[in-house]
Amino acid sequence: KEYRLLSDKALDDVSTISDFKKTSTRVLNAQDYEYAIKRMAVREYHSPILDNMQEYIVGLEEFSKKVTKIKKDTDILDLRKYSIKGVKTIDDYTLEINIKGKYPQFLYWLSMNFFAPIPWEADLFYQQKGLIQKNITLNTYPIGTGAYYLAKNNPNQEMILKVNPNFHSEYFQGEKLPFIKEVVYSLEKESIPLWNKFLQGYYDASGISSEAFDQAVAISSNGDMGLSNTMKQKGIKMSGSIQPSIFYLAFNMSDPIVGGYTKEAQKLRQAISIAQNEEEYISIFMNGRGIPAQSPIPPAIFGYQKGKDGTNPIIYHWVNGKRVRKSIEYAKKLLAEAGYPNGVSKKTGKPLVLYYDTTSSGADDRALLDWRRKQFEKLGIQLVIRATDYNRFQDKVRKGKAQLFSWGWNADYPDPENFLFLLYGKNAVVNTNGAGINSSNYQNPKFDKLFEEIKTMSNSPERLEKIKEMIAIIQKDSPWVWGIHPKSLSLYHSWFSNIFPNAMANNTLKYKKIDGKLRYKKIEEWNKPILMPMVVFILFLVLISYPLYRAYQNRQRAVIGE
Asked: Do residue 408 and residue 280 come from a single domain?
């Protein structure tokens, strides 16, 4: 209460949250989760999932309109005074949420940070104008119940996590969590100094930049990645996994040239898709860290198929147990059937010119853009690169004005619905005034009908069959060049343990361990001062100084003799 109505004078000496001397805490309860949902509904706070959740949580849309209007007319909004029809606290340990229809994925949403509990006391405190002006907000100084608290928040230099003294007792293998008492994240603006400090032991873990790839990774004759001998000698370990992500080249399906659903339009996109050699892209630009995508669904997500069953038959042949990309000759045949023999329009007699919008324009991007042009040149198609700033690029995509563009998606939760909805017609940006997630504006009634069926189904053989049918539809329509699923690789020292790759989990830090004694020993061993160059330099100085000294002595004697 003491800090709830702060005057400008009271804030004169305040620049960070730590300048407040008094702190308080209390036990988490169900009301904190209810309050978080209420806060999500306030448009001013820009929750990225509000529109999506309004489709499911009963009464959320009406509540959002009401509190958003109230917030415009008040500085501090206490959401406890208002209620959502479908959200009710039963007691301190029970929250009831009513949703519209059946939606199994809602449990995944509840496990995400969007639904993190928010104490009303913190919300009212952070709404004070004086604090907002000093950038002391819930975004910069979050409140929670986790194993750590954010002790320092300077993203341009350093972020420090320290053990939450009020963290509830939680054990793993008989030991109290968290194992690491302080975690420091430092910003290194250059990759080379970061890599060198990792090799010296000053960082416990590191990614692998393109510059360091050859030093860190050895590739076998079979194409398998492993650690180089240099890394093995230092006891460094490597972990890696295919990410639940996809990066793709999108066709704007509302575009009069690359869009549409005729057989000719399909064949044009199929020909271009075959010509985009994703295997080459992965080898050249990603050091082999990725796999070509066959559909929107990445590995480890229900609906992903391995081997022949998971191969896109539009783009690949299955030969001797392997995928083989169809030939450029076959792609040219499709292009001719699409009405563009050798890249020239049958109707106009003019070369086919396509436009690729991108935010890449620097010298480092030139090689990638040149590679992209060459993929189209294989078919006789001229690709014009239209580079622009990110805001302009986003605006063009949202308005459906970009013809070709690269896009990507990371899983929110491990369900195929979270990837297939990227191609659901009702999510098309042209149908949602730019708010939809379907940036390619793909709309196929049969696909949409199947999507509406599978999105409320639990994983089962029946759901899998419907997903297979959906994938076959979009493979034929080819609204995307399916692109890649990236592979993450990370290195860590021998003293850093309990490291398990899990892109979907955000609570793994508390399980990680550091052997501080071993780290100190290795840092000392690897960073001993090399004295020999200094000794040689001193001897060199002595050698060149001695004749000068002798000459000086002789001169002094001569002067005295006179």
From this structure: yes
Do both 552 and 403 map to the same domain?
no
Instruction: Write the pLDDT tens digit of every residue in 112-126.
Output: 999 999 999 999 999
- Give the C-alpha distances (Å, rounded to integers) separating 474 from 112, 310, 317: 29, 14, 18
Residue 392 has which token pair? 């302009």
430 shares a domain with 562: no
Cβ neighbours of residue 344 closer than 8 Å, sequence gap 6 or more: 350, 351, 352, 380
- Can the peptide bond before residue 178 be classed as cis, meaning omega within 30 degrees of 0? yes
For the chain, helix (H) and strand (E) counts, in that order, are 19, 21
Q: Are 410 and 426 in contact (CB under 8 A)?
A: no
Range of the domain at 440: 245-487
Final residue of a domain: which of 144, 177, 196? 144
Left, alpha or beta for 166 (phi > 0: left; psi -120 to 50: alpha)? alpha
Among 477, 419, 406, CA closest to 397: 406
Tokens of 532: 């020999």
* Listed residues 144, 168, 187: the one ending a domain: 144
pLDDT at 432: 87
Place of tokens 């057989």: 263
The residue ranges of the chain whose pLDDT is under 70 are: 1-2, 361, 363-364, 531, 549, 552, 559-562
Instruction: Indicate if the alpha-carbon torsion angle 354, 360, 363, 367 is positive or negative.
Output: negative
Q: Tokens standing for 173?
A: 């293998």
Residues sharing a CB contact under 8 Å with residue 187, sequence separation 6 or more, in sequence order = 155, 156, 157, 158
Clarify whether residues 396 and 467 are in a common domain.
yes
Position of tokens 């196929």?
Answer: 444
Sheet holding 148-154, edge to edge: 148-154, 158-163, 182-186
In three-state form (DSSP H/G/I as H, E/B as E, the rest C), the secondary structure along 364-381 is HHHHHHHHHHHHHHCCCC
- Cβ atoms 111, 87 nearer than 8 A: no
CB-neighbour burial class of residue 170 (10 A; exposed 0-12, middle 13-18, buried 19+):
exposed
